[in-house]
Amino acid sequence: MDVHFIDTSVFLNIINVPDRNQNREEVLEELSIISENGDTLLLPFATIIETGNHIAQNGDGNQRRKSAERFCEIIRKTIRNEAPWKYYGQQMTEADLQSICENFQDSAMREVGFGDLSIIQAYEKYKNDTPAINRIRIWSIDKHLMIFDEKLHNINMRN
Q1: Long-range contacts: 86-95, Cβ < 8 Å, 24+?
Q2: Which of 3, 10, 122, 156 is the least buried, fewest Cβ under 10 Å from its Cβ?
Q3: Is residue 27 a contact partner of residue 13, using CB atoms and an 8 Å limit?
Q4: How far apart are CA 60 and CA 64, in angstroms?
Q5: What's the rounded Cα separation, in Å, for the pair 138 and 122?
Q6: Per-10-residue mean pLDDT for the chain, 159 residues long?
Q7: Which pLDDT score is estimated for 56?
C-alpha cells in the first residue's frame, strides 16, 4: 500500500485557487495516477485549515467566494466519501502539541509553520501505526515537505 498525505500546496492546486494553482496540470495528472493505482490518499486537518486561510486572504471578493464555494464542495464530498481521499483528522493530544512546540522555534527559523509540523506529526503517527505500508510520503510542492517520502517495505506476495 502506498500512502500520500496531501499538503496545502497540492490541495490549493486541486481546488484551483487563483495565484496558488501554478502546478494544477501536474497535480491533477498525478492525482489521476494515484487514484488509478488505488493508493491511499489522506487529507489532514491542518491542510484543510491552511487551505481555508489561504482562500480567505486571496484575491478580490469574487475570487474568494468562488474559491470558497469549490473548497466547501470538495470538503462535503470528502465527508460523503465521494472524494479520492479520506479525511485524516486524528485529534492532537497534549503530548503531540508539546512535541510540536519543542520543534517550532527551530522550524520557524526555517520558515516551516505549525501546520506543516502537525502534518509531519500525522505522517509519522500513521507510518508507525499502520502495517504493510510500501511507500509513504507527504505529497507537496514545498521542498521542505517533499523530503518526507519513504519506501518502507518491499511487499512480495509470492507463495
Answers
A1: 86/40, 86/41, 86/42, 86/43, 87/42, 87/43, 87/45, 87/48, 88/5, 88/42, 88/43, 88/44, 88/45, 88/122, 88/126, 89/44, 89/45, 90/45, 90/122, 90/125, 92/118, 92/121
A2: 156
A3: yes
A4: 6
A5: 10
A6: 97 96 98 97 96 92 94 97 93 87 90 92 93 95 96 56
A7: 95
**DSSP letter string over 66-112?**
HHHHHHHHHHHHHHTT-SSSEEE-PPPPHHHHHHHHHHHHHHHHTT-
- Cell numbers for 60: 478580490
Which of 32, 30, 67 lies closest to 51 in space, CA to CA?
67
Q: CA 158 to CA 15: how far, in whole Å?
A: 41
Cβ atoms of 1 and 39 within 8 Å: the answer is: yes
pTM (2 decimals)? 0.90
| Third-level CATH fold of 2-151 | Rossmann fold (3.40.50)
Helix (H) or strand (E) holding 117: helix 114-129
Distance in angstroms (rounded) separating the CA atoms of residues 132 and 60: 46
Q: Where are the domains of the chain?
A: 2-151
